[in-house]
Amino acid sequence: MFPVEQIRADFPILQRQVNGKSLVYFDNAATSQTPQIVIDAIVDYYSNYNANIHRGVHALSQEATDKYEQARITLQKHFNARHAYEMIFTSGTTHSINMVASGFSELLNEGDEIIVSALEHHSNIVPWQMLAERTGAKLKVIPMNQEGALIMDVYDELLSKKTKLVFCNHISNALGTINPIEEIIEKAHKVGAAVLVDGAQSVPHMSVDFQALDVDFYVASAHKVCGPTGMGFLYGKQEWLEKLPPYQGGGEMIETVTFEKTTYAGLPHKFEAGTPNICGGIAFGIAIDYVNSIGLDKIAAYEQELLDYGTEKLQEIEGLRIYGTAHKTSVISFNVEGIHPYDIGSILDKLGVAVRTGHHCAQPIMDFYQIPGTIRASFAFYNTKEEIDVFIEGLKKAIMMLS
Ligand code: PMP
What we know:
This protein is α/β, with parallel strands linked by helices. It folds into two domains: 135 residues, Aspartate Aminotransferase, domain 1 (Alpha-Beta Complex); 255 residues, Aspartate Aminotransferase, domain 2 (3-Layer(aba) Sandwich). 40% of the residues lie in helices and 17% in strands. It contains 14 helices and 17 strands. A seven-stranded mixed beta sheet has the order 4-10-9-8-7-5-6, with helices on both faces. It has a four-stranded antiparallel beta sheet with strand order 13-14-17-16, covered by helices on one side. A two-stranded antiparallel sheet has the order 1-2. The radius of gyration is 22 Å and the shape is globular. The two termini are 40 Å apart. The mean pLDDT is 97. The site of 4'-deoxy-4'-aminopyridoxal-5'-phosphate has 14 residues, from helix 4. Keywords: Aminotransferase, Pyridoxal phosphate, Transferase.
């Protein structure tokens, strides 16, 4: 049996009340909650060894540097990257994508093509549109079907020798769809294109092996996997990171500086200008260790149980439609006929239940279904079936009040 009660005790926030009710937190796709061990790591850093890294000869600086670099190795091992220096610390998924999109300005020419999926978060659309505007490259879209899956036959048709880059999320934040990224990567490589996978939603729910995937770039945020906000990573194959120009100039990313010429530092420092989020990096490593102490396979199996249970209960409600029924993780996006998602979300909040309402930064998906938005319940491994019951009861109450 999955030890959910023991796990819940690790998360202080789960004990709190909201509007006089026990919190039911089903907004995990937006951000996950933080276990005490990660909170302790943050307090420990600022209480005991807060110092700037890589430069100091003094003990605190060396301690902070060691812990920060240890976190990089934790990430490298967790994702099976070939080298620790292929793991670039960033402020999150959005930052990581912008770094690659910015770098590709120098690698693309007019007439080149780049391909995006229809299932993307805005942060994996807009930077590429900006890149296309800068370079004259053409942005093409892999369409989706009613089930919320990508239409892969069309992907085959879009790919050509002109394709230079394909970007797609591993899991859709709006629907939970798990995309066939193995196939996407393999086919892109056949035409010589690189692939960036947005793993913001996959990293919390499944094991990911960068070398097995043979992915060129993979990006994610710490705050969706029990870590702090303002922290994330860009994984890039060494050959790609060497090809890309630096994103920002400044301290830390240089080898030598004169007023005539600067030479850049090697990886990972070339992409880590300025004082980084030292504490965030360390806490990210602790968060990954924490998740591994439970086991991502066990987490995935338990979340599947929650997904099945929640889906079954929701399907019993008349007039309720679930969007995205393809192979997916523990995200349920739905609407109730004749009721605005925001109204339901507000009543659920009064009952202590936190869900997301709106377009989930994925307006093209909402446009596809011709809806303004959905209500999204996204489960994590510290949620329970009892919480789903509270949510369903609350939802029924909201529907009664709003009908
Ligand atoms: N991509 C996906 C699939 C996401 O779910 C999110 C966060 N909602 C992002 C990108 C952006 O992540 P961040 O805001 O942490 O940069």
